[in-house]
Amino acid sequence: MYNNNILGKSLERWIEEFPLITQLISTEEVFWNNPHYRPFEQCAGELPLEEKHVQDAEQRLQRFAPYLAKAFPETRQMNGIIESPLVQIPAMQQDVEDRYGQKILGQLWLKCDSHLPISGSIKARGGIYEVLKYAEDLAIHHNMLTVEEDYSILADQAFKDFFSQYSIAVGSTGNLGMSIGIISAEIGFHVTVHMSADAKQWKKDLLRKKGVVVVEYASDYSKAVEEGRKQSEQDPTCYFIDDENSQDLFLGYSVAAPRLKKQLEDRKVIVDEDHPLFVYLPCGVGGGPGGVAFGLKLLYKDQVHCFFGEPTHSPCMLLGLMTGMHNKISVQDFGIDNITIADGLAVGRPSGFVGKTVEGLLSGIYTVSDDQLVELLRALVDTENIHLEPSALAGAYGAIQLFKSEAGHNYVEKHDLRKKLMNATHIIWATGGSMVPEDIMASYYSMAKS
Ligand SMILES: *Cc1c(COP(=O)(O)O)cnc(C)c1O
């Protein structure tokens, strides 16, 4: 059944070298501590991006704020800044402690990117940022705009006519397509979204209603990206947003970090040597969680511990980092099917750029079954009345596994965290959900009940 020759090695050899592969193949839940994790100062010199790049992205989003406030009324209240609430979830914490018979030391919080304006997922950070940056580059290059100007003029018809000469394309499992599609169409670009088979019908319908061209594929995410890239290359006026390699997307996500820092300070939550911060991020191709983790490490260095969560059927980043093969390896190479209810995470091959960037920064990766995702989805509705899509709950399993698994214990011991856990802050990064239609949300909820 398995390919006997996987990237030049037999399956037996792979397992000998990386015994965890056995559990990955049988889609068991695992908790993997990253052996490449190092003190931040040791990694800092080797990173392809630095703090000034994050600040540049932050300032660009600031310039666009007057435009966004005008074009998207739902952002007006925040003066055109696309940001999400940070909320403490004590009832959920109690519920999972009871449910899993495991005390979580420290305080559990939820970062509600599920409720980001415009597109209701973490993709409203990176996706929208990259389109805005492209629009700015074009307008400045054609002497229609300077960085000193009030960007609300971008909502004028003259700009829409100008941007309509250009097109944008992207491959997506759904949410990135939503972000890119919605913002591009509003600015005036022609936009094509190449959707993988797992993309939900309601997302395609919503985009088509906004004038976005949606191309559907019978295969998974990697194929949709590949096709999108190929078709875009043939059109010189087309700009392809490359979820697997884009530094702009990554930087758009990273801006979440300074904003979160401010939110924590406003809430009087301390992060320092004796008050560690743990962040649990759902991971697909890696850009979203990678960008956020990168931004957080720049600010908090060794005081923040970032973990990614992946579905048991799509542990692509784990496989790529563990083997060091990054985007050269896929879960399908090992007969893992990449089929999961967590459509935003249904990615079989990770981003090589992200994997190499976060290699020394990431504390570890755990996997989570679809059953647990819907259980946690239901628990969060029942305890806090917060509705997330299944992918977003991958973050919610992190704190449980840190305390429950042997590898989690090892991490705590190795980094001398045991005595500090009482003071810990655990943040579940809730990556999507507010735009899911009610009937579909109800079907997720009832899945857990049955
Ligand atoms: C895209 C997505 C992620 C993961 O982001 P990647 O950049 O693909 O790793 C997580 N959750 C949701 C809901 C998403 O849409």
TrEMBL record:
Q: What range(s) does the Tryptophan synthase beta chain-like PALP domain occupy?
A: 80-403
Q: Which UniProt keywords apply?
A: Lyase, Pyridoxal phosphate
PTM annotation (N6-(pyridoxal phosphate)lysine): residues? 123
- InterPro entries referenced in this protein's UniProt entry, alphabetically: D_Ser_am_lyase, Ser/Thr_Dehydratase, Ser/Thr_deHydtase_PyrdxlP-BS, TrpB-like_PALP
Q: Which cofactor does it need?
A: pyridoxal 5'-phosphate
Stated EC number for the protein is 4.3.1.18
Please give the catalytic activity noted in the UniProt record.
D-serine = pyruvate + NH4(+)
The broad enzyme category this protein falls into is lyase
Q: Which GO terms describe its molecular function?
A: D-serine ammonia-lyase activity
Q: Which family does it belong to?
A: Belongs to the serine/threonine dehydratase family. DsdA subfamily.
Q: Which NCBIfam families match?
A: D_Ser_am_lyase (TIGR02035), PRK02991.1 (NF002823)
Q: Can you name this protein? A: Probable D-serine dehydratase
Q: Which organism is it from?
A: Paenibacillus oleatilyticus
Q: Which gene encodes it?
A: dsdA
